[in-house]
Amino acid sequence: MFSLSAKIQDVFNEPACEKNHGKDAKARKKGCSKPLTPGAAAGGCAFDGAKIVLQPITDIAHLIHAPLACEGNSWDNRGAASSGPTLWRTSFTTDLSELDMVMGQSERKLFKAIREIKEAYAPPAIFVYSTCVTALIGDDIEAVCKRAAEKFGLPVVPINAPGFVGSKNLGNKLAGEALLDHVIGTVEPDDAGPYDINILGEFNLSGEFWLVKPLLDRLGIRVRACIPGDARYLDVASAHRARAAMMVCSTALINLARKMEERWDIPFFEGSFYGITDTSEALRQIADLLVRKGADPEILDRTEALIAEEEAIAWKKLEAYRPRLEGKRVLLNTGGVKSWSVVHALMEIGIEIIGTSVKKSTVEDKERIKQILKDENHMFESMAPRELYAMLSQHKADIMLSGGRTQFIALKAKIPWLDINQERHHPYAGYDGMVELVRQIDLAIHNPIWCQVREPAPWDCLPAVEEEMLGEEGTRATVDAFKEFAGTTAGDFGEC
C-alpha cells in the first residue's frame, strides 16, 4: 500500500501525459506539484476534487471525516444528476469537535458513523474521505475502514485526499487511484459482452449523459460504467470487463484510463460529446475500438447510418439560428475539455471565437485549440478581472461563456453571459445538446433586457431636458414638476 506522499509522486509521474515526456528524470520525478498560495483553495482543494469525481456514484454513502464545515462547504456544488438512487444527495459527516480531537475520539466516532449508516441505509458501499484536520491529527482511516468492512460485511473505501496536499485536479487523480486500489475489479459480471465500454470523466452535469446514452443504445453498445456520472457501485466495481473506453476529461482521470489499459487491456481514446462533428467522431472511434477488440465489423456501417440520420436532424434545427448568430463574437472563459470542444461546436454554425481560456487545459487541449482557431493570439492562460471587464465593456464580444465566478464581470459590463460550467441547468452534450446550447446563446444575446440596461438613466438626461425647457420660456415650476414626474417614471424614458 502506497503512502500518501508516494501516491502523489506516482500520480504526478504520468506516462500518458505528453508534457511529462519532454522533461528530464529529475523534473519528471518532481511532477507538476505547486504549493498552494493563500486563497488558492477557492478554486478547489484536493478533498473537493476527490469528492467531485466520486460523489456522482449515486447509490453509495459518502462520509466526510471532518468538522462540519468541510462537508457544508463542499456539499451539492455541482449539477450532476441521477436516474435512480438518491443516497448520494444525503450529506454524511462525523462532525468532529475540538473535544473529539483532543481526547483522541475521532477514529471511534468514524467507526460509529459507519455503523449507523450501514444500519439506517444499507448502502452497497461507503466511501470515507480524509480531510485536512483528520490527516493532520494522524487518524488512520485506512485501518478504520478495513476493520469496519470486516465487521459490517460491506466495502468501506478510504479516500485519502486531504485538502492541503494540493489542488482540485490532484484530488481528481487521487480519487481515481482509490477506485483502482479498492473498487474496480472487485466484482466479476456475469453478462460481459463484446460491445461493453466505459466512459471516463463524464459527470452527467444537468443530465448531459442522458442525451448521449440513447445513441449508444441504438448501436447496441452498452455502457458498462460511466465514471462517475450517474454510476452505481457494482457497475464501477465490474468496469474492468469493458472492451474499450472513452476519456472525456483527461485532466481529471487520465491516470485511471491509462492504468486500466495496462492492467486489463482496455484501450481508450480522448473525445468529446460537445458539438455535432465531435459527437460523430466520438461514436466512430468507439465503434472502431470495439471492432479492434473483436466486435462484429458491421457496427461500423450502423454507426455511419446513425450519424448521417442524427446530423441531418441537428443541422436542420440549427439552420433557424444561423442568420441570428452568424458573425456573433464569443469569449470563452473556461478550461479543460471545454476549451476546445465548445470552440469547435460554436464555429460550426458561424460564431466567431475571440478568445478562449487555457488555464486548466492540457498540452493536448492547447494543440487542438491551435488547429481549430489557427491563431495562438486567441488563447490566454488567465485574464485578470480588470482586463476581462475592459475587453467586455469595449464590446469586443457579444456574449461571454464561463463559470459562475466571472458572471458578474459580464453583467457589470452589460454583456450577455451564459453558464457552461458545472452549475449550469441545461445539458449541452450530443446532437440535441448542441441545439440547446445554440438556443440558449440566441436567447441570451437577443434578450431585450440588454437594450434597456445600456440606455442612459433618466436622471442623466434631466440637465439637457431642463435646459431645453427653460430655453422655450418654461417656468421653474414646470421644470420641477417634470423632475418629480421623471423620478417616479424612470423606466418610461428612452434615449436622451
From TrEMBL:
It comes from the Bacteria. The gene is nifE. This is Nitrogenase iron-molybdenum cofactor biosynthesis protein NifE. Pathway: Cofactor biosynthesis; Fe-Mo cofactor biosynthesis. This protein may play a role in the biosynthesis of the prosthetic group of nitrogenase (FeMo cofactor). Residues 45-443 form the Nitrogenase/oxidoreductase component domain. The keyword Nucleotidyltransferase does not apply. GO terms for molecular function: nitrogenase activity. It holds the Pfam family Oxidored_nitro. InterPro entries: Nase/OxRdtase_comp1 (IPR000510), Nase_comp1_CS (IPR000318), NifE (IPR005973), NifE-like (IPR049939). Keywords: Nitrogen fixation. It comes from Microvirga tunisiensis. GO terms for biological process: protein-containing complex assembly. Belongs to the NifD/NifK/NifE/NifN family.
